[in-house]
Design goal:
By secondary structure, this protein is mostly helical. The chain has helices at 2-91, 118-125, 136-143, 146-159, 161-174, and strands at 110-111, 114-115, 182-184, 192-200, 217-225. The protein is built from 5 helices and 5 strands. It has a 3-stranded antiparallel sheet with strand order 3-4-5, covered by helices on one side. A two-stranded antiparallel sheet has the order 1-2. Helix 1 (2-91) packs across helix 2 (118-125), helix 1 packs across helix 4 (146-159) and helix 1 (2-91) packs antiparallel against helix 5.
Amino acid sequence: MNNNYLKNEKGSTLLVVMGLLMAAIFISFIFFDFFTTFAAKRVGQTSADSAALAAAEEAKQIYDKELKKQIKDRLEKLKSEQEAEEEGSDAAELPEDEGISTPLPGIGNALFGKEMPPGVEKWINGSIVDLDSLDLNEALKYLFEQDEINKISCGSIEDAFPQIEEAARHYAKLNGAEDDIEVEFPYEGEFKVFVKVKKKAEFVTVDENMFSGDENKVRAEAAVNIATPKGIDISCD
């Protein structure tokens, strides 16, 4: 009888051990799923940050190039006007009985009710012919009103939005996110780029077929300010 009792005890102990072992394995699977989800979230966030930074940098290069073009065009226009006035001044003379000739009013050192920056004056006079030698911030503030700067900057970015979107997608994929991303500009009315990415999470405790659509994907998002010229705040309506 004692032998039968001992055998039953051994059998019960084995069942308990097997049950505990299975529970431990199941718990380890749960922790594995938790870890992979957390890792996917980290990868997704890194991808979103990288994509947003890349998009913001691409946007800056685009609008910066357009602003430089607009600055040069306006400087050349002012220079042409100055040259035309100087030619007219040389040709204009008062009646002979006055005995003197009087030049027509030139551009002088002020336009638009603002003091002309030295660099702009040198450009108009022909002393500077390279934009890299010019203080572009001073020229921008002098030549354009704030609403013009906003319109040029925001318009150039919106026109080249596919290019910005592609830069964001490239860096999102490079850092592990999926190809399906969302890019938004402007973001909440500000001079920002917003990016949302997706990253698939792998599970061992749940069958993948139980998910529908994007339920098994973690999402991450990031918004980055686009750098602006010093002392100038750009906004898009």
